[in-house]
Design a protein that fits this description.
alpha+beta; Ubiquitin-like (UB roll); Creatine Kinase, Chain A, domain 2; 8-stranded mixed β-sheet; 26% helix; 22% strand; globular
């Protein structure tokens, strides 16, 4: 598996390699001209294995292998290789023990009509309210798929830590973490791969669109929980991290990395702050950064950046937050 060069939203690609018993995956390659990563006259891109886990779909001795993309010329990171950014951030600030928990929202769609599961055919259900963490056939659609995806993630050894139905019908969420700046991207991309694979089985299209239904419906985000060793010990460090994220130029830098369609999602409504404004506050889901009430009470813990889209690249998001916050907490 590798991350392609699709614009504006990168996607995961995969192919299968048959290995002899005991053989390591080794470097491989692919046609980058078919993935927006090379031209046809110089099309080869190198795949460098960087993370592997059990394949819960095939089972047995089969494995899933996450790869970085490298250039053939000197085996340096390909321009689309955002994992290299996360590795660099971790090498620089790993002594601060950064930890991430990502909340991946997604929307189940009918592959023919592109209408969300739980919506009447070309119609609309009742307004938002009863669907979030709901129970019952009137409120919930797709639970069997969600449960199977959760089981696959557990069998793969991923750091999945929970799931729940979301605010809009047909919208769900799973959480990955807490793990470090690099691992959270490895695990999230593989969890996304498994999500789309299980969607094939159920003939359901999985959308990471930031605003899959226009109008008075919640968008889909990847809320990002973050802490360092100092934040887990001191409320002053919590405030320092919030201030760092709101420093001149930083909100714009982060918004540029936080996914396609962010202006449609971060409108100031539906539990968001506007994309062009920055704020933080305790228990405030309308702020850019939420400080959980328990953190304020305990005077230590973590913060939640509510701005990243569901379609944001977890490697890029984790790298940027690590660099921004750790640079002031060193």
């Amino acid at each position: 598996m590798w991350i392609d060069g699709t614009v504006p939203t990168a996607e995961i690609r995969s192919k299968t390699k048959i290995l002899a018993d005991g053989e390591n995956p080794g470097i491989w390659g692919f046609d980058g001209s078919s993935t927006n990563q090379a031209s046809g006259d110089n099309s080869d891109v190198v795949l460098q294995p960087v993370f592997q886990c059990p394949d819960p779909i095939r089972g047995g001795d089969d494995i899933l292998v996450m790869c970085e993309c490298l250039l053939t010329k000197d085996l340096s990171p390909h321009p689309t290789n955002t994992r290299a950014m996360a590795v660099a951030a971790m090498e620089k600030y790993g002594d601060q023990q950064p930890l991430f928990g990502l909340e991946q929202e997604y929307t189940m769609l009918d592959p023919v009509s592109s209408w969300p599961y739980g919506f009447p055919s070309h119609g609309y259900p009742g307004p938002q309210g009863p669907y979030y963490c709901g129970v019952g056939a009137v409120k919930i659609a797709g639970r069997d798929l969600v449960e199977e995806h959760t089981t696959l993630c557990i069998k793969a050894g991923l750091a999945i830590s929970g799931t729940n139905a979301e605010v809009m019908p047909g919208q769900w969420e799973f959480q990955i973490g807490p793990v470090d700046t690099v691992t959270v991207g490895d695990h999230m991309w593989i969890a996304r791969y498994l999500l789309f694979r299980i969607g094939e089985k159920y003939n359901v299209e999985m959308s990471l669109d930031a605003k899959p239904m226009k109008g008075d419906w919640n968008g889909a985000g990847m809320h990002t929980n973050f802490s360092t060793n100092k934040m887990r010990e001191s409320y002053d460090a919590i405030i320092a991290a919030c201030e760092a994220l709101g420093a001149p130029g930083k909100p714009e830098e982060h918004i540029a990395v936080y996914g396609h369609g962010i202006q449609d999602r971060l409108t100031g409504a539906h539990e968001t702050q506007r994309y062009d404004q920055f704020s933080y506050g305790v228990s405030d889901r309308g702020a850019s950064i939420r400080i959980p009430w328990q953190v304020a009470k305990d005077q230590k813990g973590y913060i939640e950046d509510r701005r990243p889209n569901a379609n944001a690249d977890p490697y890029a998001v984790a790298a940027l937050i690590t660099n921004t916050c750790c640079s002031v907490l060193a």
